[in-house]
Amino acid sequence: MRRRDWLVGAGVIAGMAWASAAWGQEPKPAAGPPLVVRAYPVDDLLPARIVVTPPPAPAQSDDENPFEDDAGDEEYVEVTPEEKFIRMVRNVVAADSWEPTGQARLAIHLGRLLVEQTEANQAAVADLLNRLRHPQPPGQREEVPPAMAMALARVVPRLRIRNATPAQLLEQIGQAWDVRIDVRWDTFGDIGITGTNPGRVSVDLRDATLGAALRAAGSAIAGREDVCDYAIQPDRVLFGTVVTDALASASVLRVYAVRDLLANHDGFIDSNRVEEFKQMNRCLIHPDSWAPTGDSVLEELNGSLIVKAPPRVHRDLAAFLELLRHPPGVGGVVEMTADGQPGGRAASDRVREGLARRIEAVNFNRPTPLGDALDWIGQAGGVSIGVNWGTLGTIGITPTNPEVKLSLKDTTVESALYEVLSAAAGREDVLDFVVSDGMVKISTRDDLQWNKTIRLHNVTDLLDRLDDPQAGERVEEFHRFIRSCVRPDSWAPTGDAGIQEWRYGLLLIQQHQEGHRDVARFFKMLRDPAPRTLADQPPEANRVARAKLRRLGDVDFSRPTPLGDVLDWLGDAAGVDMDANWGALAMIGITQTSPKITLRLRNGTVEEALRRALSAAAGREGVLDYMVRDGVVKVSTCEDLRTIEFLLRYDVHDLVGDGSGDASLYDVDEFKRLLRAIVLPDTWAPTGDALMEWWPGSLIVKQSEAGHRELDALLAVLRSGGRTPAAAIPELEAAKRAADARAAELAAALKRLREQAPRDDLFRQAELVEGDIAMTTRLFDLQDMLRLLPEDFVLAWAGPAEADDWDDDAGEANGESIFGDDDDSSANNNNDNGNGGGPFSQPQWGAWARERRDDTERRVAAVQTCLRAHVAAPSWAPTGDANVEGFRSCLLVKQTPAVQIEVARFLVGLSDATRFGNAAELKRLMPPPPAIGDGPNRGE
Fold it and tell me: CA 316 → CA 76, 137, 234, 319, 337, distances in Å?
């Protein structure tokens, strides 16, 4: 025996003796295969010494930070290189076989890894060590023989297989790529799928890879994308369900070199960043597959990622790592493709270009089968369209039924596809499509929720706009902002979608494709200049349609005319597509031929004529409405349209703070409160789904079309500066005369509807009743009056002014509002009895409020409270729908036209009494004294 071999043998014997002492017991007798002892040199693989800071624990009563000792130094947990290496091996190789749950043992001595394991697991340990020394280089694909590698890289320009059985479909795919596909039909039998069932299926792909073809085949055969899977073998492709033993249970070990993703600018790897990286991978790549809930394992060592998982997890993980290595530029986005190949992204980009093509006209004037309509749209866009007819069949939709009837002008392929799908389902939230594997895949929305992808967004430009100086808080606030505005219920923990930060300014967003479309629109909205009015809001198709609705003309339907014919005429007159949801209208007894309406309008807009036609058809306001979407004017019931809420951004920098856009937090919150109090108050969160968020200089608003129109009108009123009450009276009287005439017109229309309706149509008679005339919002300028108001009047209705020295009132609750000059006095709003507080008092803010408050606030608050007490008292919120709010030196009043005249006259009377010193009139307007026993000293 040579000296070197003798030394190695002695070292192994000594090591095992040491290990026996360390393990504290003799080896147990093996119940299964015999255990053998091997020693592996691992000096070159051991990591550096690691110091980990534990996460903070809940604060204790006597010590807020339990990880901090009396001297103030943090306690650290030190992990030796040997401990980390042993932990990694135990987790990766036969995790259940090691002590204490099993009999195998593991230790490191004198730079050697001592392993007591079975022969099979010894081979797995040796394979792991070899892979650690030769990790898979960045960008390298799966380890397959050259012949299979050539098949995976081959791109077929066009793969079109029509009306084939599942067995024939997979056979033809194998012939196209010259590979053998071994199908595990026994596993498909559990879900009712065989070589001939379900019937005939089709696949149509452009520029397809083998992986894309197999995924498309699985989707066509099973009806869902998460049922079938494939694994690349040395000489064949194994195809089966995801629960197949050969696909799910036979995990594959791979080691990925990721030092370039983990190291900082100095080349060092931070242990905290490693843990964040591992957690990010577990959250975004098949979350349920990782231990402890699953069998897959993910570990890190010396800049390498050790992964033991099924083939599909490896495919997605490799594609994810490829995505991280190619981040987009500022404002850009990169999507993770199913197989990670750059060609997959190029194919998807070509499909999106096809969907963006403009079409002069879409004419399905005669009822057209859905399948034929989709084929026409695919040819118009030059894209492949794959329909999951199996899933659509569960809701009664087939290639020949239903038939769609649709006419569109100057639209895009994508908009036409949306309209066809909504027309086929009768609703907009049933069918949808995704772009994947170089094709457009159509199915139900519930089915497509399973198809989630990951996109990497560069939002550095958006983060830099936020005012928070701390980057960490800025990023967290931006995450909250996204979750609040875009599909709030879809994000974890309530949903499956997620947002992860990958370095500063790079956001990883996992969503289904519809969610990705909403996120892309949201970021584009934040980057574009904010429009001031609804008419200027993107997209361009909506801007054009709204402009056409403002065309002037005469409308003369002197003879009773069916509503359908009226809508067609108005659409032709404006040059827009007008689509009515006759299914929803039929629920309230309105069809294309009944009722018949009369309408005459001279030199009016198409929009005004449309509103009058809808109110005449329903017999009153507030039953039917319209919205503009994708350049199409959609008509339906108000109840139906209010369920469709969308985001718009309004430039309001001139209305908040001092008009420069540099508004304090209080200015913003008070302005948002004012808008929510006037515009559809019951629709805002938390009682409703509508929301309003602040973005520097602008508001992000999620509302229905009716809510956006009302908000747009309100912002126009606020920008108008208001009129003095005396000057507003003639306008208000004219508006009241027009409202009375409109009420008479609606009453006559309702009478005609009752004569036309059958006697037994009780549902229609109960719904179509006369309603109140819609309220209007007016802004009254009080500037001349406010400076003349007597102090005792202001004191009685608004309370005393606060002290000047705000720095000494840190604990005092102070009122704030949006009025912004630097005077020394202010007050809180009061309730109707003038005693302070109540539901109309301003929010209480504390020492961080602005340094000074304007005396204008107190005076406007006094007029506001006095008005509520003396004019139409029961109609104001919260008991009624009307409202009055202060805005700078003006009073914003939402009321019916008749009450608006009373408000104006009241303000004129108050102004005259103030100007001429009419003490008797001012005394009459003062609040009554508190009743006996109501004061602070009652009972004395």
Answer: 36, 16, 20, 5, 9
The per-residue pLDDT for 830 is 36
Determine which helix (DSSP H) or strand (DSSP E) holds 635, and give its type and residue range: strand 632-637
Question: How many other β-carbons are positioned within 10 Å of the β-carbon of residue 55?
Answer: 8
Q: Give the C-alpha distances (Å, rounded to integers) separating 184 from 164, 230, 243, 313, 563.
A: 18, 10, 11, 20, 59
Instruction: Dump pLDDT digits (tens) for 702-720.
Output: 999 999 999 999 999 999 8
Q: Could you tell me the two tokens for 598?
A: 């009369």
The helix/strand/coil state of 407 is strand
pLDDT band with cut points at 50, 70 and 90 for residue 202: confident
Find the helix packing angle between 311-325 and 271-284, rounded to 10°: 120
- Assign 3-class secondary structure to 462-504: HHCCCCCCCHHHHHHHHHHHHHHHCCHHHECCCCCEEEEECCC
- Eight-class DSSP state of 632: E
SS3 assignment, position 216: helix
Pairwise pLDDT comparison (256 vs 768), residue with the higher score: 256
* DSSP result, 671-726: HHHHHHHHS-GGGBTTTSSBEEEEETTEEEEEE-HHHHHHHHHHHHHHHT--B-HH
Distance between CA 727 and CA 752 in Å, rounded? 39
The share of the chain scoring above pLDDT 70, in percent, equals 80
Question: Would the pLDDT of 939 be above 70?
Answer: no
Looking at residue 831, the DSSP 8-state letter turns out to be -
Q: Locate the DSSP E strands across 143-251.
A: 156-164, 181-183, 201-208, 228-232, 237-241
Sign, Cα dihedral of 189, 195, 201, 204: positive
3-state percent breakdown (helix, strand, coil) of the chain, nearest 5: 40, 25, 35
User: Would you say how long the chain is, in residues?
Assistant: 940
Which tokens is 88 given? 């990694």
Inter-helix orientation angle 855-870/897-915, to 10°:
120
**Could you identify the residue written with the tokens 């609750």?**
813
Q: pLDDT tens-digit profile of 64-73?
A: 443 344 444 4
Contact 346, 155 (CB under 8 A): no
- Which residues face 635 on adjacent strands? 580, 626
For 235-277, write each residue's pLDDT tens digit. Answer: 888 898 877 666 655 678 999 999 999 888 777 887 788 888 9
Q: Please state, in angstroms and rounded to a whole number, the distance separating the CA atoms of residues 369 and 371.
A: 6
Q: What is the pLDDT confidence band of residue 779, given thresholds at 50, 70 and 90?
A: very high
Placement of tokens 């990958």 in the chain: 502
Alpha carbons 328 and 459: distance in angstroms, whole number: 10
Q: Is the peptide bond before 562 cis (omega within 30 degrees of 0)?
A: no
- Range from 348-357, 555-564, 909-918 carrying the lowest mean pLDDT: 348-357
Taking the CA atoms of 640, 642, 645 and 650 in sequence, report the sign of the dihedral they define. Answer: positive
- Comparison of pLDDT for 807 and 700, the residue scoring more: 700
Cβ density class 582-614: b for 16+ within 10 Å, e for less: eebbeebbbeeeebbbbbebeebbbbebbbbbb
Residue 564 to residue 591: CA distance in whole angstroms: 8
| Helix and strand totals (H; E) in the chain | 32, 33
User: In angstroms, rounded to a whole number, what is the distance separating the alpha carbons of residues 67 and 76?
Assistant: 8
CA of residue 691 relative to chain centroid, distance: 12
